[in-house]
Amino acid sequence: MSALERFSRLTGVAFLALAVMIILLPGSNLRRWIKTWTHSRSARLIVEDSLSGRPMESRLIGSRRPTERLFVVTDYSCGYCAMFADSVVDLLAKDSSRAIVLLFHQSTDWSQTAARAALCAGNQGYLESMDRFLFSVIDSIPESQWGEVARQLELPSAAAFLECRHSEAVNSELASDSSLLEVLGVAGTPAFLSIGKGLRIGLLPNAALDPWFDSRN
Questions:
Q1: How many other C-beta atoms lie within 10 A of the C-beta of residue 93?
Q2: Which of 57, 61, 111, 167 is the most exposed place for a label (fewest CB within 10 A)?
């Protein structure tokens, strides 16, 4: 190997080492970008793996065939989640191809009971009306009154709704949500998950949420 070849190789190694040092610097923008991209991609794979083969239709608010989706973690015992629910219609009205996919955080007995009702109403295409109703409830609903709730909201089948609420399928769905949120580290609500933007916990104004809708979901 000639002296020139040795010099070229050493120069290449030096530049590579310098590039690695720049990336690893604590304040490096490139390092932050790599960290954000890695976290976002990891979150995407976790969500895709968790929801693969599960009935998405029961979780959709908005378009039934969305080209843009935003995963939203909600809790029916969460006041900020109720504030977000009030603005969902306006948010989705901007684009008819959008949908919100609800994931359910179950911090109390009521929020778990309500999540069951939401999923079972979603099975009949009535998630949006049930979602808004559940956030209007001040206290829990006695078991004997759920049939009346189904009739008030004009669900196609009150009997199917009542049977669904205690089914193994719904038990499995909610258990899967709890496992997913634990892996993602979601402890507060509402939370917003986008493949391109990663994970955001805390209420945001509608205008700030627009960029979070992602066609890669």
A1: 10
A2: 57
